[in-house]
Amino acid sequence: MQLTVIGTGYVGLVTGACLADVGNDVICVDIDKAKITKLQRNILPISEPGLQDIVERCQADSRLSFTVNIAEGVKASEIIFICVGTPNTNTGTINLDAVKTIIKYVREQATSPKIVVMKSTVLPGTNAKLLDMLNAEGASHTILSNPEFLREGCAVKDFMEPDRVLIGHHENVSMLKLYKIYAAFIAIGVPVINMSLEDAEMAKYAANCFLAMKISYANQLAMICETVGADVLKVLEGIKHDARIGDQFLNPGFGYGGSCFPKDIEAFVAFAQNIDCPATFAEAAKLVNYNMFKLAVEKVREASGGLKGKTIGILGLAFKPETDDIRHSIGVHLADYLVSHGARVQVYDPEAMKNTWGLLRGAVTYANDPYTAADCADTLVLCTEWDEFNEINWVEMKSVMKGCAFVDGRNMFDGKTLESVGFKYTGVGV
Ligand code: UGA
Question: How far is ligand 1, taken at its centre, from the CA of residue 212, in Å?
Fold first, then answer.
């Protein structure tokens, strides 16, 4: 089937490439000319396992193309996926400018009825209003809500093997056409669930708020465990075997980051307040997450004996492993805070350092490896649990440092092992 995907960020690029890989002809559109020119040459703006191969393969087979010409994209396909950003505004709600611009384009450029598939995260009630805008001049376009649940770092796998596909719709003909696109997924047993537009919009926020609440719950337990002298990892082991609780998204650390949870929780809290139905649990998740950053700062301050004049190494700037994304990254926020409080900061990340230049260059020292980040440091802080940190030789690491404090913001390492080679170890809730 001929498809158009507008927006080539994480969601759009993965959606376009994967839909091409399962046999569709896909045109990806973006207003960023430099990005599109690079994509045409198979140079990807993001680092995502497996994506490079798919883009190269599908472009070579002429099933995937990239353009800045939105009119061409709109005219070419009956089905148009919208995958542009919906960032927060100052008031916590979301900015729909990019989405509305595309709706306007579709309204002006379409010469036949279109099915707009909304993958961008939008608050409940938004798609119904966008549909009114789309058909304001009497056209008969339709909108489907098809929220995305992929995670950065394993986005291709999540897209190709989703837990479920949600299709929010207001009429059946367009819904059945989207069903056909997901036929390859249905064939491998993926449940496709039909619902109203509002149900699907709500489900996206319900999922992200629930996951953020799980993380914040584990983090709150960690803080309580520290106070009572319990080990949160043991406590969690004691509850995770209960199938009703499960073992995912309960890893304590310095808090959740990324482009989704902070934004979506903030937007949902503001939305719920506006309709006089406070989202109390989501508010609590947000507050705990804020407190985790304060806890991170206090742990580093205590481990280092103050901040001013201290040398602090940071391992990890990406908001999580397997991505170079630094949006709402604890490592970046911490580096910034430490510098502004008089510390000398040395950072290392295998993928994300280039993306921090605009924020940190000049203020921190960039290291080529973990040992250089620790060179003469009073304290070493781990903010992202990159797999390559498992290769660290801790005896060597200790020998290059001035001090011996190691603050493990992801509970990645066993404290006793590190203490046996001379480190003073601090984890989160352990
Ligand atoms: C999240 C959701 O997991 C996806 O399902 C959703 O599609 C996506 O948001 C979105 O709305 O687009 P993502 O932000 O890529 O995906 O990353 P996650 O793997 O969910 O991690 C988010 C943050 O939570 C990271 O900072 C991670 O380190 C942290 N986290 C995760 C914890 O602190 N503890 C955990 O147990 C799990």
Answer: 8
